[in-house]
Amino acid sequence: MRPVILAIESSCDETSASVIRNGKVLNNIIASQAVHQKYGGVVPELASRAHQQNIIAVVSEAMETSGVSKTELDAIAFTRGPGLMGALLVGVSFAKGMAMALDIPMIEVNHMQAHVLAHFIDEPKPSFPFLCLTVSGGHTQIVLVKSHLEMEVIGQTQDDAVGEAFDKAAKIMGLPYPGGPLIDKYAQLGNPKAYKFSETVMPGLDFSFSGIKTAFLYFLRDEKVKNPNFVEEHVNDICASIQQHLVTMLLKRLLQASEQTGIKDIAIAGGVSANSGLRKELKALGDAKGWNVFIPAFEYCTDNAAMIAVAAHYKYLKQEFCSLDVTPLARMPL
Ligand code: KG4
Ligand code: ZN
Question: Is the pTM of this model over 0.90?
Answer without folding.
Answer: yes
